[in-house]
Amino acid sequence: MHIHLDALGGVAGDMFAAALLDAFPEHQAGVSASVRAVDARIACAVRAHNDGILSGARFAVSAPGEVSGAVSGPAPHRHEHPAPHEHPHPHPHPHDHGHDHGHDHGQEHGQEHGHDRARAHDHGHRPWSEIRAALEAADLAPAVRAHALGIFGHLADAEARVHGIAVEAVAFHEVGAADSIADIVAAAHLIAALGTRSWSVSALPLGSGRVRTQHGPLPVPAPATTLLLAGFATLDDGIPGERVTPTGAAILRHLCGDDPGRGRPRGILGRTGIGFGTKVLPGLSNCLRALVLEENAAPGPGRRDLAVIAFEVDDQSGEDLATGLDRLRAEPGIVDVVQMPVIGKKGRMMARIQVLVRPESLEAAIAACFRETTTIGLRYHPVEGAMLERAARTVEHDGLSVRVKIVARPGGRTAKAEADDARGRAGHAARAALRREAERRALEQEQEER
């Protein structure tokens, strides 16, 4: 499966989540559970929306300090395109509101940027290190955690470069941090749950103008956004204002890696989803569209070209290596990562790492291996692979969301529940029963849709 993002109105974290949840509504409960696992005070919901031209969905978040009921009504903390406060600040500047430059478009006339409640209340700032610790400690599936850390890491790195500070000094406005956590964790959950083979994005509308912040007037696109979008195709559609937010840009960088110019491949169009921002653009729907492309259906296993990267590690702690391998698994283009114990010279125990990667992502994967592990050398070679058609879905059972992978085998379709989603049940028998029921329901739902 390949997903192409059509950035008609632009790209923001909430628009990305809304577009994918519009296409894959069965993942709504799982997204909410992942967000709550990181911060139980944050609630999120998907609302149907029609702008008079197109219909789709909005992703609404109720953050700490927000008006009660913000999820079900117009989300007052969401910005007019994405969130006005998702943009981080370098700590310890005493800003009274966020400055994600997308609250109003074309703000060249001195209008105050940000939202009124943020100006009215003295919200604090939440350091990136604190958010990272919360993600690492949260009861998230390893792949979801790795994607969330990867996206947030891109965002923090860009902000640090813009302001000339250390990454550890970057801090998010308290309300903006809640929005960013919800948007990024939702995106991470969907990326992990869908298991998409590859991603691409249309030319991006950069917008224009300036916004007023505590730093003074800043240009659109935001400085952090320009760093994150290096190498992406852009366009000028004549509509001013911020069109791609820093969080949206961080998601795109995470998905496309070092290949931002990847085009939309040939394929069979399947599901589509439309995610709206709240800003009304003149003569244009303010939305992001997700187009889901399936590979040409063919009997039996499909063929694909791959590459294998292999190396050994004997001087990295098990805990840190596990973290590094989880981050490798979240890298775009990496299909799988495995490790096995081997004995090296002088009888020393080592971990042998094998990474399966798509050929077009080989160089980026090699760089990631050197970045995330202590190896100083590796081997790689091309291989051919065969794979069966598979699909991912989320089912609800007894108050839990369980992800299930369905595979089309020559003898029929089989289902395998995600073991991590059964961790909340005490006892082997209870976990096994939950997985069996989730697999049964997933196959039943899949059969009904065929």
From TrEMBL:
InterPro entries: Ni_insertion. It comes from the Bacteria. Keywords: Nickel. Residues 65-122, 412-432 are annotated as: Disordered. Residues 81-122, 415-424 have a biased composition (Basic and acidic residues). This is LarC family nickel insertion protein. It comes from Methylobacterium radiotolerans (strain ATCC 27329 / DSM 1819 / JCM 2831 / NBRC 15690 / NCIMB 10815 / 0-1).
